[in-house]
Structures are given as C-alpha cells and as structure tokens.
Specification:
The chain is an all-alpha fold. Helices cover about 80% and strands about 0% of the residues. α1 runs antiparallel to α4 (about 110-120), α5 (about 125-140) packs across α7 (about 165-180) and α7 crosses α8 (about 185-200). It contains eleven helices and no strands.
C-alpha cells in the first residue's frame, strides 16, 4: 500500500508540486484499498470453489462406488485413505463423509453434480481429469472394476466433457503406478510400454522429438502450481505431484524401450 502511495505521491509532486503530492498520495491510498479488496474477494471465491470441488469429488465417488450395487470395504477404506491423503481437517472430513453418503443415496442427481463441477472448474481440462482420476482410484481400490463401474466412469467422463481416450490414459496411468518397482514378466513389461505410450498420448510410430514435446506439454499442463491457480485444492497437491511423477515414469519407460536394441 505505502509503496504505491509514495510512487504516486512523487509523480503528483513532479506534476503539480504540493497539491499534486496530496492528490497522488490520496489516489495511491484509494487504489491500494481497492486492490486489497479485490484480492480478498478473489481469494475468498477461490477458497469456496476449492471446498465445493472437494465436496463434489466425494459425492460423485459415493455414486461411483455404488454403481455395481454394493460398496466394498476396500472402497470405503480408499475413501478414508483419501481423507488422510488430502489432509482434511475434522470439519472437512465430516463434510466429505456427508458428501459421500449423499452420492450413494438413491435420489442423487449425478448429472447436476457434474454440471456443478464443470462450472467450478470453468471447464479446465486438467482439473476435470484430476477429478476423474480420483474417482478411478477409488473404484479400483478392491483390485477389480465391475462393468457397471466402468460404465459409470464413462458416464462421468462424458458429463465432464472428457473423451474415452482420456479415460484410457488415466487407466494406463493407474496401471503404471501399480507396476512401478515390480519385477514383472515379459508380458507385463510389454503392457508397461503400451501404457506409457497411452499416458503420453503418443504412438510407437511417433518420433523421439514428438514424444519429448508431448511429455513437456503434459508436465506443463499438470504443474501443481498451475493447477492450484485454477482452483485445485491445496490438499490435493500431493495427487497432482504424483501425476507428474507418473508422466515422467511413462517417458522414462519409453526412452528405455527405444534405447534397447
């Protein structure tokens, strides 16, 4: 505040001597107060949007987990793990539980909830992908995906304006994360390579330069700071960072495969 007042005061003094100084200082004070008020409004609006994003995440998760007619113990545990992973406060944890229960109720309006998410994220594709990634993580917690759950996943993706190719990309990313650190068989190694191409959205026929460009583009789009500025809750930063690690892992898998004679 004071810097702006001093700068405008000096400009005013240079233009109109002492009266100009008074006007400049007054204008600097007014502009500083205005900017601070706008900043507070923006921050408050962002915090509210982040809270609503989190609630919608768990509401849709409740609907996803109930898609096959039963919510397994593993799926409930997965939700609780996410409570911890997102470092939810006791109050926010309770709100997340209520949202999860709302989502699994018979009268839950999934399409309306997805429309709300679209509005909250302003259609930012990476935020929508992150939202879907959380859902996929939850329903895959029991080690299998029921056909009804997969259909629900596709329905959610369509409601968010995402394509089946993006769903396959997230599924490949999940398999890649599970495979990291394992010895694996020749078949699983082939699967890892195929999944790596899927994660980067490239094909084996693409050049090394094209694959590098795709990798850099994904890393830029998924940078945690960039996502936070678009509305991703700070509590979900860890998941955003994990996604960049998985993208890097996919790139490393492709480079290693191409280096092998």
């Amino acid at each position: 505040m004071y810097i702006l007042m001093i700068v405008l005061g000096l400009i005013g003094f240079d233009i109109g001597r002492f009266p100009g100084l008074i006007v400049g200082v007054a204008l600097g004070y007014w502009l500083s107060k205005k900017a601070r008020r706008i900043n507070l409004n923006v921050q408050g609006g962002l915090a509210q949007a982040q809270s609503q994003y989190m609630e919608s995440t768990f509401a849709v998760m409740g609907a996803m987990c109930k898609a096959d007619g039963v919510i397994t113990r593993e799926e409930i545990q997965a939700a609780e793990v996410l409570f911890d992973r997102f470092r939810l406060s006791p109050e926010n944890r309770e709100r997340a539980k209520q949202a999860f229960n709302r989502g699994k109720s018979a009268d839950f309006d999934l399409d309306a909830e997805l429309a709300k998410v679209m509005q909250l994220t302003h259609g930012h594709r990476v935020l929508l992908q992150m939202f879907l990634q959380v859902q996929l993580t939850a329903i895959a917690a029991d080690g299998q995906m029921h056909p009804a759950e997969h259909q629900m996943l596709l329905r959610v993706a369509r409601g968010l304006g995402l394509t089946e190719a993006e769903v396959r990309q997230l599924e490949a990313m999940l398999r890649g994360a599970s495979a990291q650190g394992g010895a694996g068989s020749q078949t699983s190694s082939r699967q890892q390579i195929d999944d790596a191409y899927e994660v980067l959205g490239v094909s084996p026929s693409d050049s090394d330069e094209e694959i590098k460009k795709a990798y850099r583009r994904l890393m830029s789009q998924n940078h945690p700071d960039k996502l936070a500025s678009k509305g991703l809750p700070e509590s979900m930063r860890d998941m955003a960072e994990q996604k960049t690690r998985e993208i890097t892992h996919a790139y490393d898998v492709i480079k290693a495969a191409r280096a092998t004679p």
